[in-house]
Amino acid sequence: MENDRIFSGKKVIKKLDFWKKNENSLLYTKAADNRDPALTAALLSAKGTCKMDYILETRDLVKSYRDRTVVDHVNLHVRRGEIYGFVGPNGAGKSTVMKLVMHLTAPDSGESCLFGEKTGDKNFECFKRIGSIIESPCFYDQISGRENLALHCEYMGYHNHERIDEALALTGLSDTGKKTVAHYSMGMKQRLAIARAILTRPELLILDEPVNALDPGGIREMRDLFRRLNQDYGVTIFLSSHLLSEVEQIADTVGILQNGSLLAETSMRDIRKFQAEYILLETPDTAQASCLLSQSLGITDFDVISETQIGIYDKKASVEVISAALVRDGVTILGIAKNKRSLEDYFFRMTASRNEVNI
């Protein structure tokens, strides 16, 4: 069954014509299509045991600057054909992880695998198959966006210049004409960065905060574009963001990074199971309310979220019954209502648990 999972990604085989196939990828596909365990095992062994169902994988990546560890034994697993949301607060280490994957900086220890192969000093061909935005994108300011994309084509050895018009259209920059990039707004520059990333029809997009500086309309347009690239063309997208609501709408899998450590990799399907309704109780006396919930009502599935808030997750709990019991025992109620948990709730619950361990 293991071989059945290799290349069983939801859009990989469907859009092979979209890919620039090289000899190795054709061999991998043959091994998977024929379900040949011996050939598959040999290919895996030859590639340093990198798993082929992961288009991007990291193993115990560590990076420190002076006496501060900014990436702490990070093990990422990005499957072919998915959108992976890499979330965490500013300064968590997301951009540094992406730089390590793209060999823009060297790790202290650990390694990365791309397309089933270990990356190294003599293995840079795989980067032709990737489009990326890392931190603040740079352009030649005194020429137009179109001319910048033409230069990128030359740099990448990509000679289909007809793709420039398509990339500009997809990112809403068709009408920029000869305007130089120096006169672009921050939002326009971000759109141009996305256009450059998708220009050469990459198999993998690595996007660091791709909707930075975009207005709400622009964010929606780019979200729709990423979905289209993923669903219609099988492009795998690894994107970082601190906008949890955006990641929630687009990602298949979420990785949570805090203080350089990967706390969890979780499918959105599992997170949605977590996103059941719950009761949010607001009271100035959370200690007394907690005792009443556990001792008088027999409710044990709850968390004290803050000094004035309790989240009650017991599916059988009733707002009316809890309210009546609190009033009867003289507990002040500031508010009580049903809510639905979001990715943000999941994120803060995960990071809060880690903080308690660290304490």
Features of this protein?
alpha/beta; Rossmann fold; Alpha-Beta Plaits; five-stranded antiparallel sheet; 38% helix
What's the CATH topology name of the largest domain?
Rossmann fold
- Rg result: 24 Å
Most strands sheet: 6 strands, mixed
Strands, total number: 15
Q: What is the H/E order?
A: HHHEEEEHEEEHHHEHEHEEHEHEEHEH
* CATH 4th-level superfamily of the largest domain: P-loop containing nucleotide triphosphate hydrolases
Number of domains: 3
Secondary structure class reads: alpha/beta
Detailed description of the structure:
The protein has 359 residues and is an alpha/beta fold. The protein has three domains: 2-46, no CATH class; 55-272, Rossmann fold, CATH 3.40.50.300; 276-340, Alpha-Beta Plaits (2-Layer Sandwich). It has 13 helices and 15 strands. It has helices at residues 2-5, 23-33, 37-46, 94-101, 145-156, 162-170, 186-198, 216-233, 244-250, 268-274, 286-296, 319-328, 343-358; strands at residues 54-65, 68-74, 77-79, 83-87, 109-114, 117-118, 130-133, 204-208, 236-241, 253-258, 261-267, 277-282, 302-304, 309-312, 335-340. The strands form three sheets. Strands 7-8-9-4-10-11 form a six-stranded mixed beta sheet, with helices on both faces. Strands 1, 2, 3, 5 and 6 form a five-stranded antiparallel beta sheet that branches. Helix 8 (216-233) links the parallel strand 8 (204-208) and strand 9 (236-241). Helix 2 (23-33) runs antiparallel to helix 3 (37-46) and helix 6 packs across helix 7 (186-198). It is elongated, with a radius of gyration of 24 Å.
